[in-house]
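Lab notebook, page 48
Experiment: co-folding of the full assembly
Goal: obtain a model of how the components sit together before planning crosslinking
Operator: M.T.
Materials (sequences as entered):
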Amino acid sequence: MDKTAVFDEMWGQDERLRDPYVGFQEWFQGEDVARLRAKQREADTLFRLTGITFNVYGRAEAEERLIPFDIIPRIISGPEWARLSRGIEQRVRAINAFIHDIYHKQEIVKAGRIPQEMISRNDAFLPQMIGVAPPGGIYTHIVGIDLVRTGPGEFYVLEDNARTPSGVSYMLENRETMLQMFPELFSRNRVQPVQTYPTDLRQSLAACAPACTEGKPVVAVLTPGIYNSAYFEHAFLADQMGVELVEGHDLRVVDGRVAMRTTRGYTPIDVLYRRVDDDFLDPLNFNPDSQLGVPGIMDVYRAGNITIANAPGTGIADDKAIYSYMPEIVEFYTGERPLLRNVPTFRCSEADDLAYVLDNLADLVVKEVHGSGGYGMLIGPTASKKELAAFRAKLKARPGNYIAQPTLSLSTVPIFSRQGLAPRHVDLRPFVLASPKGIRVTPGGLTRVALKKGSLVVNSSQGGGTKDTWVLED
Amino acid sequence: MLGKTANGLFWMYRYLERAENTARLIETGQRIALTRLNDRDEEWGPVLQSAGTLTAFRAQDEDLNQETAINWMLRARGNPSSVLSCIEAARQNARLVRAAVTGEVWEAVNAAYMDARDLLARRVRERDLPQVLRAIRQSTSLVRGMTHGTMLRNEIYDFARLGTFLERADNTARILDVKYYVLLPSAGSVGTSIDNVQWETILRSLSAHGGFRMEYGAGAGPLEITQFLILDKRMPRSLAFCVDKLCDNLRYLHKGDRTLMPSLKQVNHLQAMYLSHDVNAIFDFGLHEFIGQILDHLGQVARQIEIDYRFYE
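Observation: model returned without errors.
Model output:
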């Protein structure tokens, strides 16, 4: 293995095999490299066959791409996971309480823990949601918490995805593929199952059904359509849950309910798992040009006659500026100390923080508060003097527009490369389901891995891949 | 079940059936061209006509010969009925109804598409043609097998079957429509070698030569062929067989409803008025007119199914 200064999840920092990987290592030593290479190719074929691809917009040829899959599992021990999952649960509980508060009394603002303008000037704040009580009291039913690891017990939350987290189909297909290719690995290691996710999801959604539901709740998945980049996932989830996959033009408001056009007329829907953004959900209430939504669905929602998962307006909780308040938010609503760490975040709007950021610019990552996708970002350690100077000027001109964070030393896990096992940086997105019956965290999640040596970018559009993520039973 | 899903299933299976039928027509055309002594390009006009694509071919200003005809039917993107276009369309519809079909069916369609895309990426050389056609028919057969073996017998299955048999009936009727004159008792001297080749063509285009031989042996003529392809309910591509299946599946869909759907009424009518007679009655009526009317009725039934089951609104 290459020597790395960072924490490797298989070899630690001192080249000593860590416990969760013992069973894997025994197996791996008995394996033949040529056979594993063949297996890696087999995996690609399996993925193509199941059609787990993402669409690339604006390309007629080769329009469907595979996200590279690495056959070496990432392994987390049972106790490690138990700690982590308690923290995730706590955070999701707090996020739901926070969103409820924001659209009702705003106690947290009154208590002076979050400045008023953080909410009122936030684009993700939906005035249409003020005073609305979602069925079951849940706002964000499906959450993805992005984590990175820096040491044996050190996990940091990088981002909370409270709107429409994607990627769960990869978690499921990755496991399915591994089970098909390496059944013997699963007999040696007791791995906690992820396959119950679709059933859990359906139960969790059904538990949030509105009061008007008669009999078994009718659940449907709303997709923008076949050309959406995540269409595979939408169809996959509908299939696995055994519910209808609908598009806006299949739906219509009939007698105060949202109903779908079936071969026998219109049938009301109780719970809609929507994979369409807020803005496109209802042309009468939001973007009037939207073809993807259902005219009038917000009125049905406000009347309490349909559950929309996730609720409109949940974006307020995954904003970058709000992120920096997450420790306060967790404490405020749960009365407990946060179990998961936030990456320390400097709010440049505050004079002390700004002074520190300006002094240490070369060591920090600076992000725009409302930016996304890496736009308007400065990575101090790799920036040139000129770039640093330019950013310094921007910061001084509009400090409130920026936050800054130290660069973290992300953990690595081995991938199967041409030279055998080689360490690469990873992150982790566990998937969480929230309903009045409780919060469920699927053991594992989606591990994204930067396949390029030394790279910290795990994004699939920039050379990132995925791995099966194991949580051991112990 | 969503109207949109019913529509997607109906067309997914129509396109799969059409892909197979087109592949079979190419195979037949090729075979006849090979066994012919004089002009090997002559037979391709009627073959394209049977596939309902002669007019479209003519519109693109290319010489009609064996090579261009095969390429047009096999892989032309401009031809919506080419094997490649049909398999692409079937797969696109399968994506649309992904949650309604089993994983096995989806994977089989997806594999059929990937195979076809690779096999038909370039013009197919004459010597590779039999192998390519065989591979395509095997991959679409796998979809049919998976459908049969893994799908629940519910509405979803009914719409899949409606698409299959509507397309198949249409295909059989169209082949008979193009070649009807060969089957007229007055046409030429019965039993000449030309007649034999022509009859063989029709039977092969419908994968009916084996069954026909089993049933009638050698020495049978146009009357028996007509009887076999139109009225024989044991022959899986005959009009009577296909219309029976349409009837069955519409009846399953109807189950429990109080009023009869217009599409079921139409199919009942088609069955009673056209397919419950003696073959001689067909000749008395006029074979060509008879087939023409059946084609019209099939078109109406397809449109009525769309309306009855809310495919679009």
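Interpretation: The interface with chain B takes residues 48-51, 221, 226, 231, 235-236, 238-239, 243-247, 249-250, 260-265 of chain A (CB under 8 Å).
Next step: discuss with group before ordering constructs.
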